[in-house]
Amino acid sequence: MPAFNLNETRIAFMLSIEKFRYMAMADDRQRLMPLPEDRVPPRGKELAYPEAVLLVDPVEPEFKGEVDDKYQYSCENKDNKVHGFICLDPPVGFWQITPSNEFRTGGPIKQDLTSHVNPTTLAMFMSTHYGGQDFVTQFESGEQWKKVFGPVFIYLNSVADKNDTLSLWDDAKERMHKEVDCWPYSFASSEDFPKADQRGAIRGRLLVNDRCISKEYLSAKGAFVGLAPPGNAGSFQKECKGYQFWTNSDDEGYFSIQNVRPGGYNLYAWVPGFIGDYKYEKSIAITAASDVDIGELMYEPPRSGPTLWEIGIPDRSAAEFYVPDPDPQYINKLYINQPENKLIF
Q1: What is the DSSP string of 316-343?
Q2: Long-range contacts of 185-193 (CB under 8 A, 24+ apart)
Q3: Fewest CB within a 10 Å sphere: which of 27, 43, 118, 335?
Q4: Is residue 113 located within the same domain as residue 223?
Q5: Structural domain tally of the chain?
Q6: What is the pLDDT of residue 342?
């Protein structure tokens, strides 16, 4: 093929608007959704960008004055495992379950879409969301490339008692955990989708050497440790063409990554509480049924001297920062009066 760019790859499930009105993507992020016609003039008013619409005259008055925006329902890859819609009468759920993130781009904290008004449920594989041009997958003329996306799991459930309708979400979460335990699926017949006995594993321990904090080596507690295509430290955050495999270390810094596709990788990591990115200096080859013990690894965070004062925690999250109340003219009721961890200065 000639040279070309690939911006987005996804599966979109468009459900019946007469049936599926209740969206759920997390325990604290679920609600009845507006109607598609509420988003178009004169019922809706486009705001700063087309996806954000102020509902000025919705079909159902309860939504008047809210802002609907599909990006309000985004989440990080590592948390994007189950989402979908519930039909309230009869009580039926439609859920899209993603047991593995290995085929997604940008690493575990890359954000992407889930479900939104229409009603639409998305299985996102590649996208430029929240990254722009850095996530455009570029191919040279004649370049050969192959990648397996999915499989994703579509789950339908139901209950007889309408009073138990919202239990469909809890059931979907339980099913998600079962599907994660079944990965990699054994039914896939493609030779490009390796089964469990055709994959390998890697384990080791990550320590932190920060003399400004401790004279002893520190365990990299809760570190994000992953295998991704070769590149510079932190390059996994913009990587689009290959596969990535991530885990979190335990309290002592030990980690284990299972079911890795055969291939050549670099090992990357970052440790909550410490700035910077870690990259193991040697390349790692994973073969079928291999179990690589990489031993103890040492991360030395970049420093110019002792920390004098600090705002926030270097954990690639803004969870501890103050989130101001929204302008009452531009709200989404889903995010009103939610308990938040707020650091006020």
Answers
A1: S--TTB--PPPPTTSB-GGGSS-----B
A2: 185/99, 185/151, 188/151, 190/148, 192/146, 192/148, 193/148
A3: 27
A4: no
A5: 2
A6: 43
Per-residue buried b or exposed e for 89-126, using 16+ beta carbons within 10 Å of the residue's own CB? eebbbbbbbbbbbbbbbbbbbbbbbbbbbbbbbbbbbb
The residue type at 109 = I
The pLDDT, as a whole number, for residue 328 is 87
Asked if residue 189 has pLDDT above 50, the reply is yes
Q: Is residue 162 part of a domain?
A: yes
Give the domain range for residue 226.
196-299
| CA–CA separation, 320 and 342 (whole Å) | 5
The tokens for 100 are 């593995």
Least confident of 138-142, 157-161, 313-317: 313-317
Same domain as 45, residue 154: yes
CA distance 319 to 298: 27
The 10s digit of each residue's pLDDT in 67-76 is 999 999 999 9
Angle at alpha carbon of residue 160, lines to 156 and 161, rounded to 5°: 120
Identify the residue whose tokens are 């989130």: 323
The pLDDT, as a whole number, for residue 337 is: 66
Q: How far apart are CA 235 and CA 257, in angstroms?
A: 19
What gap in Å lies between CA 162 and CA 90, rounded to an integer? Answer: 7
Identify the bridge partners of residue 120 per DSSP, sorted by sequence position: 14, 116
Query: 171 and 205: one domain?
Result: no
Q: Are residues 43 and 147 in the same domain?
A: yes
Q: 268-282: per-residue pLDDT in tens?
A: 999 999 999 999 999
pTM above 0.70, yes or no: yes
Residue appearing with tokens 């996102």: 124
Separation between Cα atoms, residue 195 and residue 197, nearest integer Å:
6
Amino acid at 80: N
Output the domain CATH number for residue 258. Answer: 2.60.40.1120
**H/E segment holding residue 43:** none
